[in-house]
Write a structure and sequence with these properties.
Order of helices and strands of chain B: EEEEHEEEHHEEEEHHEHEEHHHHH
Strand content of chain A: 25-35%
Number of helices of chain A: 9
Oligomer: heterodimer
Order of helices and strands of chain A: EEEHEEEHHHEHEHEEHHEEEHEEEEEEEE
Radius of gyration of chain B: 24 Å
CATH class of the largest domain in chain B: Mainly Alpha
Number of strands of chain A: 21
Largest interface: A-B, 43 and 47 residues
Number of strands of chain B: 14
Helix content of chain A: 10-25%
Radius of gyration of chain A: 25 Å
Shape of chain A: elongated
Largest sheet of chain A: 6 strands, mixed
CATH architecture of the largest domain in chain B: Orthogonal Bundle
Number of domains of chain B: 4
CATH topology of the largest domain in chain B: Transferase(Phosphotransferase), domain 1
Number of helices of chain B: 11
Shape of chain B: globular
Structural class of chain B: alpha+beta
Chain lengths: ~375, ~425
């Protein structure tokens, strides 16, 4: 087991003007499950491949434990890429399927056997070790393939979108399986995905990347509660956070007819570059539908109501927006009580729960103090 | 998503296939039983408009990726199967979505490695397959292709004179880069070593491997041969004296390995006393191209080597050394190559490719001459070869009727 450290690691592809990964600084703890997440082209896969030794590091260093692996060949890094290849060999027993790579490494037989038995125990495959893969179920076969990576006892597991080719239902069950297996093995794991739900449900911590730059690293809850900038705010959470740019009028953000008061601290952080505007975000689940009389309530004209049984989501528009104001998406989304949904075409009033409002600079997109 | 077929040259007959049925359940009247390798996915062969197609069921994203990779590889001239199309948006009778299907053309006269081992225990088969795979891997790496899943299962082999030529059949994990890093090449090589040892150990466990073959040694050999070929093709070399001769020697060495030099950099060092030479662009198929230029015959590299040797001998025997090479080549095609192929009964010509038949006849003739202690004329050699060898060979144009599959493919999914 080991820590992993990216120290100003940069990858510039030949002929490119902009780095694919730009001065990445990231420390991953021993045994931690870290998820690299971001939209396509953000540099998450490149970062993983730099750690795997598949991509050159043009600047900076990468460490596994105390060892500088920047210039070390992939197979000498003590890492395992999981799910890359899991064809099973029909004539070999489950034990041989799991352990044959250790023969290549020249391990003595008794050591191979003990490692295979240990892995089989973790994977619930003990009773199948002498059988052929034909006798196993699909799920068991996949566990045998995982076993092949586990018996090598790598210091770090690397996974690059392992679920991307599965259908939605299987993605959920495999996700749980991988997460629980990682916790049992307690091996440092770096996992790449473009799916924020996967990131939130699996990672001990999440590193969000965009355009080759690390945006924020933290626990799922930190990313959800205090996104560092507008990008993280819009990327983390589903349905996405409602985010808009609004003029500051009398010390408050003017959202349609409503005034959302801003604290003195927030106002003090506004600069001339912000041009009298501020970015406000509120999650669909941070809104309460209130009676007309509530102060600071935002009017929302209901376009569509999506009923999911456990939840209902109202998709609507805020009328009377200032010409300088705009939302980042077409609709404002409000979570509603599924037993009491507003009618299509009606107007509801919503308030943001105290402390659940996110404020960002209109100029830089960075989070401002509340 | 709506039902959709992406294809470069769409064949309307594709629409007749039972796309609403999971591939594993396709009826026997549609499916041709061809030998298959070990696959993670369901793969079936179908006969369509006189062609044999391979259909693989995979996730839509992966199908489109692989389709694009195969088309790119074809454009780069790398030996690989031809992508026909992707069928996506499939739904079954009850409206449940099905995975996409990648359709490729079955490579005529090609054999999966398991079929080669299943046939007969020819000593040295593993070693000859290895040579072919190493040549393919080096070509892919020169072209900037990172395979990500190198194995015998993901390769098809065609007889190429006494050797084999390898074709890539699975590009699912592949990536095309302007140039590969050393890490990518070495990781691919490491995967190749592990997979091939695994595949040979599996054959060993199934009593299909020549007992003299040690999987671990073959695996090591693969690495050694790859590194040697890569170095021969790309290494920088410092030349001190007689530079002209040494450059010519390097080019001749690459030619003998079957490569043409497209670009060679030559730079003198700081004090101008030595010259550094390094091949920058090397292109395989040196002999195949030379033969095609001389005769119009399009064959594989080692077959071309064989035919060129015969052509050179013919030119010498006929005292045509003063004639132009083209003239001699024309004479050889008209008086040696074509008569040999025409002497093969029509019904037996589907057994092997013509160039392979010619090569085997030549070998046969040599053995006959050795045994009989006389110079056996060509017509006698052909007749003897037809009666004693070819007639008993299995039809390899598309090897139908033998299913080497022993294990249903591992589904992509875990249970629960």
């Amino acid at each position: 087991m080991a820590t992993v450290t990216f120290d100003g690691a940069t990858r510039i592809y030949p002929g490119a003007t902009k780095p694919a990964v730009d001065k990445l600084d990231l420390s991953i703890a021993d045994g931690e499950f870290l998820v690299l997440v971001g939209p396509s082209g953000c540099g998450k896969s490149t970062s993983l491949r730099m750690l795997a030794g598949l991509e050159e590091v043009n600047e900076g260093r990468i460490f596994i434990g105390d060892r500088d692996v920047t210039d070390v060949q992939p197979k000498d890094r003590d890492i395992a890429m999981v799910f890359q290849n899991y064809a099973l060999y029909p004539h070999m027993t489950v034990a041989d399927n799991m352990g044959f790579a250790l023969k290549i490494a020249g391990l003595p037989k008794d050591q191979i056997r003990s490692r295979v038995e240990e892995a089989a125990k973790i994977l619930d495959l003990e009773e199948y070790l002498t059988r052929k893969p034909k006798a196993l179920s699909g799920g068991q076969r996949q566990r045998v393939a995982m076993g092949r990576a586990i018996v090598r006892q790598p210091r770090v597991f690397l996974m690059d979108e392992p679920l991307s080719n599965l259908d939605a239902k299987l993605r959920v069950s495999t996700r749980t399986q991988i997460a629980s297996l990682q916790r049992r093995l307690d091996v440092t794991t770096v996992y790449v995905t473009h799916d924020q739900t996967e990131a939130l449900t699996m990672g001990d911590r999440i590193a969000v990347l965009k355009d080759g730059l690390l945006q924020q690293v933290g626990t799922p809850l930190e990313q959800y509660d205090t996104p560092a900038n507008v990008f993280v705010a819009s990327f983390i959470g589903s349905p996405a956070m409602n985010i808009g740019t609004f003029p500051i009028v009398d010390g408050a953000a003017q959202v349609g007819d409503a005034k959302l008061p801003l604290t003195r601290t927030t106002l003090a952080a506004v600069t001339p570059d912000d041009d009298g505007k501020i970015v406000v975000g509120f999650r669909p689940e941070s809104l309460d539908i209130v009676t007309e009389a509530a102060p600071g309530a935002i009017a929302v004209e209901v376009d569509i109501v999506e009923e999911l049984g456990s939840d209902a989501f109202v998709y609507g528009r805020v009328p009377n927006l200032d010409p300088r104001a705009s939302f980042t998406s077409d609709h404002v989304i409000v979570r509603a009580d599924p037993r009491d949904v507003p009618a299509k075409g009606s107007v509801v009033r919503v308030t943001v729960r105290p402390g659940e409002q996110h404020i960002f600079s209109a100029a830089t997109g960075l989070r401002l103090p509340a | 998503m709506a039902f959709n077929i992406t294809a470069a040259a769409p064949d309307p007959a594709l629409l007749d296939l039972p796309w609403a049925t999971p591939l594993a359940d396709w009826p026997p009247d549609v499916v041709a039983a061809l030998p298959r390798g070990i696959s993670r996915h369901v793969v079936r062969f179908v006969k369509l408009s006189d062609r044999v197609l391979a259909v693989k069921e995979i996730a839509p994203r992966a199908a489109h990726h692989e389709y694009r990779m195969l088309r790119d590889l074809a454009a780069l001239g790398v030996p690989s199967v031809t992508a026909v199309g992707v069928v996506s948006g499939r739904v079954d009778e009850s409206g449940e979505p099905l995975d996409a299907a990648l359709v490729t053309r079955h490579l005529q006269f090609s054999l999966p490695y398991r079929a080669l081992f299943a046939n007969q225990l020819v000593p040295d088969t593993a070693s000859r397959l290895l040579d072919a795979l190493v040549a393919l891997l080096v070509r892919l790496h020169l072209a900037g292709f990172y395979w990500g899943d190198v194995s015998l299962s993901n390769t098809l082999f065609r007889r190429d004179a006494s050797a084999f030529a390898a074709y890539l059949v699975d590009a699912e994990t592949g990536e095309l880069h302007p140039e590969l890093t050393e890490g990518q090449r070495m990781y691919d090589l490491d995967l190749a070593q592990t997979n091939i040892i695994g595949e040979l150990m599996d054959l060993e466990a199934g009593d299909r491997l020549d007992p003299g073959t040690d999987p671990l040694a073959v695996g090591e050999d693969l690495v050694t041969r790859y590194l040697a070929l890569w170095d021969a093709l790309t290494q920088e070399e410092t030349v001190t004296d007689n530079a002209k001769w040494q450059v010519a020697a390097r080019i001749a060495e690459l030619n003998s390995l079957g490569f043409d030099v497209g670009e060679l950099t030559m730079a003198s060092d700081e004090n101008g006393s030595a010259l550094k030479i390094q091949p920058k662009v090397v292109e395989p198929g040196h002999h195949a191209r030379r033969l095609a230029r001389l005769t119009g015959l399009e064959v594989q590299e080692n077959q071309a080597r064989r035919l060129l040797n015969d052509l050179d001998a013919h030119r010498h025997d006929r005292g045509m050394t003063d004639e132009s090479e083209e003239f001699a080549a024309h004479d050889w095609v008209a008086n040696v190559f074509e008569p040999t192929i025409k002497a093969i009964p029509l019904d037996l010509r589907g057994k092997l490719e013509p160039a392979q038949i010619f090569h085997e006849v030549q070998e046969h003739r040599w053995f006959m001459s050795q045994t009989e202690g006389r110079y056996v004329p060509m017509d006698q050699a052909v007749q003897h070869y037809v009666d004693h060898v070819l007639r008993h060979r299995r039809d390899e144009a598309s090897l139908i009727g033998v299913d080497t599959r022993t294990l249903p493919p591992v589904p992509d999914l875990p249970a629960g």
